[in-house]
User: Fold this.
Amino acid sequence: MIITQRSEQGIDVVEISGRLLMADVDEARSSLKTIVTEGNGKLVLDLGQLSFIDSSGCGVLIAALKYIRMREGKIALCALTRNVRALLELTKVIELFSVFPTTDAALEAFADQSGDPKQA
Amino acid sequence: MTTAEVPSSGTQTIASTRQVTVLLVDDQFIVSEAVRRMLSEESDIQFHYCRDPTEAIEYANAVSPTVILQDLEMPELDGLTLIKFFRANPSTHEIPLIVLSTKEEPTVKAEAFSIGANDYMVKLPDRLEMVARVRYHSKGYIAQLERNEAYRKLAESEKQLAEEVGEAAKYVRSLLPDPIRLGPMRVDWRFLPSTQLGGDSFGYYWLDEDHFAIYLLDVSGHGVGASLLSVSALNVLRSQTLPNTDLKDPGQVLRGLNNAFSEELHNNKYFTIWYGVFCKSTRELRWSGGGHPPALLFNGSQREESRLTQLKSCGPMIGIMPDVPYISQSVVLEPTAKLYVFSDGVYEIRQVDGEVWQFDEFVNYLCAAPVDAPVMDQLLIHIRDLQGSEQLDDDFSMMEIDW
Assistant:
């Protein structure tokens, strides 16, 4: 698993790539906590290069949601791969997030105050 | 420097010795005096002298030196033999040993090193060199003792933790109901807690004469904390104390649990649950799931013709979002029906090649199993094969309900 972060239009875009498994959970959760704490409460998780996720990895996304909710911020997932979407649908976690096909679409929705991203 | 020539009567533990302590074994008293003088200005170095090499082991056991200096030529015992004795003796076999000899031949030096000496000085070295070597070897040895001590404490605490986890696993197991082997509805299960404890628990019981409740839950994370939370949720269900909740309505039960635990769960804790209620008179099975893998129902007029239905969750995990409108869904059971309820530990298996076995593969495996085969036992064997070890990474919890 590799986590990279960039800022676009004042929004934190975090790309999680590779595989998000039990062994990666502590590192991923800690990175996201720092990013959310230091950011401005808007987070886009780009999962386009995330090839696989297990139940523990699913917990990382839930943790990110909780951090954002504590800040009363907004969070979106984008570019879900087939495997990742399958698990998020199986566990219904997908219903907790706004999901976009691309990062640009997520950023656009964030930019528009009346846009779709759910108030966490 | 402090001097002690007589072995202390008590046996010191090696690990508690932190002061640089030199033991010199040499039959020539004059050498001992020379070394004593060299070290005399070093207030933190304790010096011991043993003139008789046949008493050297006993002496070393008593004073626990951090470095041994020894001669090679002594009338009572050959110095090379003494090195072997030091190396064979459990309490001295790792203590740095410096040979202090008049012999300068490379072959002698090589032999001394080959049987366990750590260093070699030709009599008598300069005071600065003597002090430097004594300090160098003692420092390394003391650091090694400290590492050993830290490792021992770590191993002890790990053992204690493993015992606590074992106790918690035993407690969870004690709360699980006995299998139901006879009657129109049989229930069997397998529960194998992982070494870390995965937070699984489950139960089933008659709510009244017509309604039978079945549930399995899995708390996020591992360890005693996850397990205790699992037990806490189990007890809420068993004690039937959820306020304003009809336990025959799975959706209500999940909403009740979510309300009860949303405020209580912190530190990224939540749990998944599958909860079903079977009505004997109507053969209707109602269920609801929160973030849990679907229960698998094989339903048919005959065993051979049963079809698979996945009884999926209708909402996310319990404890992450208040006011989730969990609903109940239902299915009518045909004359022969078999239901599998399980946690993700039965299919999220990290295989030998690093790939993870997935839910769809698990479903295919169950579908391919012969009718009336001991599926749970065969599955256990299969996943152990897949991961190439007996010990599972996550709890294995699975119930088989047979109508």
